[in-house]
From TrEMBL:
Annotated protein name in UniProt: Adenosylmethionine-8-amino-7-oxononanoate aminotransferase
Sample GO molecular function, one term: transaminase activity
Keywords in alphabetical order: Aminotransferase, Pyridoxal phosphate, Transferase
Similarity-based family: Belongs to the class-III pyridoxal-phosphate-dependent aminotransferase family.
NCBIfam families: PRK07036.1
InterPro entries (alphabetical): Aminotrans_3, PyrdxlP-dep_Trfase, PyrdxlP-dep_Trfase_major, PyrdxlP-dep_Trfase_small
Gene3D superfamilies, alphabetized: Aspartate Aminotransferase, domain 1, Type I PLP-dependent aspartate aminotransferase-like (Major domain)
Length: 463
């Protein structure tokens, strides 16, 4: 795609923005409905987006941690369109399709441990929802209906259905909404910034693992069904746990017969350099993995949960009648399954996981260089997930005395970066970066140069 090609098409930015006033966007500030003017994205290729004015933007958030193989792959478009002409849709209740069967088979072959059973959903929220409902179903079937409490973490994000949002712990997302609070409990997540200065790393790890064990004991092990955790807290601000955290939490879960659900909606499909991060990065084989986003690289919506043989084999074949009455019209949609298959083929053929393992450390190193900007208070990440956190401090750099928290600082940085050719994902005072996994070192240099300019321009505005 070239800008020239873009200019040959007609985009009326004002007209689109005017009509967009009827599109209630996710996380919309309701007072602003009708007056928002969002950037109109028009075309995309590789790591680049083009807006309706013909400006090229690096897709810093990779859509929303999802356009893993990059935009505009012709072979994806071909596979998808061929499947639409072959069969557009089939009911997953009474029939199946070659693509859905093959994709389930390929995922099960590559999944950690005995996670050999694939339940397709429409996205990440419905994958988490399906996991909670399956676990409750499983415990009811086993004759322990009281074992249905779930423990998740503060700052965690698991989705926007009633169940998955109730599992989420991000405080700012709780305003004016209702949640299930009886069955869902939250413990602190390990966050290096929350570690008391006089506490050793080992003691802090012990404390955060003890938080889980204490919560299980407080609720009662007979009542706790599962622990749900993201390997790295994604929209909570890319918070990387201390080494050994997930392993230790899994041990605690095993001790009390509590299932472990690893929410890999963001961390799977290459974001950390592996298909799934649970086993390859964090050394655990959970009972259920939830995935979405990179599963199809966002070419078509799809999610999935991968379930262990241990759970499935608990259902007695001779008994019958254990129908898991949960599912979606679009579970295993053949077009989405074809996109998933092609996505996996491209990732493996083009050695995208190896590429992330090579460029990821470079990306992190360059991001760390932002620490010398006085309003940058923290920089963290892993693989191709990164976060720069800013505070208006006394100007002495990271860790300086905090004078004020500017809730709009992320938006300000995004606006400055967009003018210079980079789209940023602002979350309050953080900028989260998760570019397409195909990004090269030169492109990382471009991205970081713009990010630095954007943060420095913001600093000039606010100090
Ligand atoms: N789980 C995690 C860890 C996520 O980051 C997200 C979305 O960002 C979800 C679940 C929800 O996925 P979706 O938006 O596809 O429903």
């Amino acid at each position: 795609m070239t800008v020239q090609k873009l200019r040959n098409r007609l985009y009326d930015t004002e007209e689109i923005q005017r009509k967009d006033n009827r599109f209630l966007h996710p996380w919309e500030l309701m007072e602003e409905v009708g007056s928002n003017k969002r950037t109109v994205t028009a075309e995309a290729e590789g790591i680049y987006l083009y807006d309706s004015e013909g400006n090229r933007l690096i897709d810093g958030p990779g859509g929303m941690w999802c356009v893993n193989i990059g935009h505009g792959r012709q072979e994806m478009a071909d596979a998808i369109s061929q499947q639409i002409m072959r069969i557009t849709y089939n009911s997953p209740w009474s029939t199946t399709s070659g693509p859905a069967a093959e994709f389930a088979h390929q995922l099960a072959k590559r999944a950690p441990g005995d996670l050999n059973n694939v339940f397709f959903t429409t996205g990440g929220s419905t994958a988490v929802d399906a996991a909670v409902r399956l676990i409750q179903f499983y415990n009811n079937y086993l004759g322990r209906p009281e074992k249905k409490h779930f423990i998740a973490r503060e700052k965690g994000y698991h989705g926007s259905t009633y169940i998955s949002s109730s599992l989420s712990g991000k405080i700012r997302d709780k305003d004016f909404l209702d949640f299930e609070t009886d069955l869902f409990h939250h413990i602190p997540c390990p966050d290096p910034l929350d570690k008391p200065a006089d506490m050793s790393d080992a003691d802090y790890l012990d404390k955060t693992v003890a938080d889980l064990e204490n919560m299980i004991l407080e609720i009662g092990p007979d009542k706790v069904a599962a622990f749900v955790a993201e390997p790295i807290l994604a929209s909570g601000g890319v918070i990387v746990p201390p080494t050994g955290y997930h392993k230790r939490c899994l041990e605690v879960c095993r001790k009390y017969d509590v299932l472990y659900v690893s929410d890999e909606v963001v961390t799977s499909f290459g974001r950390l350099g592996h298909l799934f991060a649970s086993e390859d990065v964090f050394g655990i084989v959970p009972d259920i993995i939830t995935t979405a986003k990179g599963l199809t690289s966002a070419y078509v919506p799809m999610g999935a949960m991968l379930v262990s043989d241990r759970i499935i084999s608990a259902f007695d074949k001779d008994k019958g009648g254990a129908m898991y009455a949960n599912g979606y019209t679009y579970s295993g949609h053949p077009v989405a399954a074809v996109a998933g298959m092609k996505n996996l083929e491209i990732m493996e053929r083009d050695k995208i996981f190896e590429h992330v393992r090579e460029v990821g450390p470079y990306f992190q190193e360059k991001l760390q260089e932002m620490r010398d900007i006085p309003i940058v208070s923290d920089v963290r990440g892993m693989g191709l997930m990164g976060c720069v956190e800013c505070l208006i401090s006394d100007g002495s750099g990271g860790g300086g005395e905090v004078l004020a928290m500017d809730y709009d600082i992320g938006n300000r940085i995004d606006a400055h970066c967009q003018k210079r050719g980079l789209l940023v994902r602002p979350i309050i005072n953080m900028c989260v970066m998760s570019p397409p996994l195909t990004i090269t070192k030169d492109q990382i240099d471009d991205m970081m140069a713009i990010l630095r300019e954007g943060i420095e321009a913001t600093m000039a505005d606010v100090i």
